[in-house]
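INPUT
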Amino acid sequence: MKKLSVGIIGCGTIGSEIAKACQDRLRERIELAAICDIDGQKALALQSALANKVPVMTLDSLIEKADLVVEAASAKVSADVVEKALKKRKAVLVMSVGGLLGKEALLGSARKTGARVYLPSGALCGIDGLKSAAIGRIDSVTLTTRKPPRGLEGAPYLKERNIDVSAVKGETVVFEGNALEAVKGFPANVNVCAVLSLAGIGAEKTRVRIVTSPEYTKNIHEVEITGDCGKVTTRTENVPSKTNPKTSALAFLSAIATLEGVVNDVRIGT
Ligand SMILES: NC(=O)c1ccc[n+]([C@@H]2O[C@H](COP(=O)([O-])OP(=O)(O)OC[C@H]3O[C@@H](n4cnc5c(N)ncnc54)[C@H](O)[C@@H]3O)[C@@H](O)[C@H]2O)c1
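OUTPUT
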């Protein structure tokens, strides 16, 4: 059987783990065809860390070469990657899902091209229940994200308000609003609320709270869904990844599991 050829855009924490999995766990069904990074050094570092050599390409030539394009780069570029991949009728898996909010029409255009768009659950549990609940009526979806200060540092929302999270004492709510506002203010920190919005009742109705404390050591996501089906509550206590404290280990594991689902014959779960 022909292997699915995968190209990865972004050679950081998530992209590197996915690349390694393509050459290890997924190697029977997937071939890593190319990698790309805006920072040439990152691409070369991943290239030399991989067991089998893979070409470093520009974004456009990677999209040309791969059957499935993985975006693991930045919310600034994810919508552009989806648009370019779909134009070439290539499947695309997006990690920087926040970059798609407000551009949901792009996902509609996937239907016209016949190409698939994959949005992994990421570092959060509960998307399965939300998808099922959304077949009926949903009254509310609320995400409470708890991260240590270093998992929020650099967020535009904090910079604009001169909030120094490293000086916070005790448990502090730093943001409350809807998912659209959350991804604008915290583009590298709360991609999970974008996935939650797209699977549920949309970004304007999905409520988000971001809490920090110097006592926190994990990235914790609590989801509460209420609707006709009843009440669903999930809590995911994530270990931050070693190379990027903003990113949880479950995020790249979720991407690897999604790729496995693309090539597997049996689909488990909703
Ligand atoms: N969906 C989720 O649950 C979830 C969870 C964690 C992170 N994320 C998102 O996934 C993305 C990757 O996360 P990460 O932890 O690997 O980040 P990272 O900072 O470790 O790596 C990102 C890499 O992408 C590269 N990059 C940035 N812009 C690029 C561009 N325009 N073209 C090519 N390469 C580019 C950077 O140079 C860097 O090497 C981020 O946008 C992050 O916010 C999503």
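end of record. The mean pLDDT is 96.
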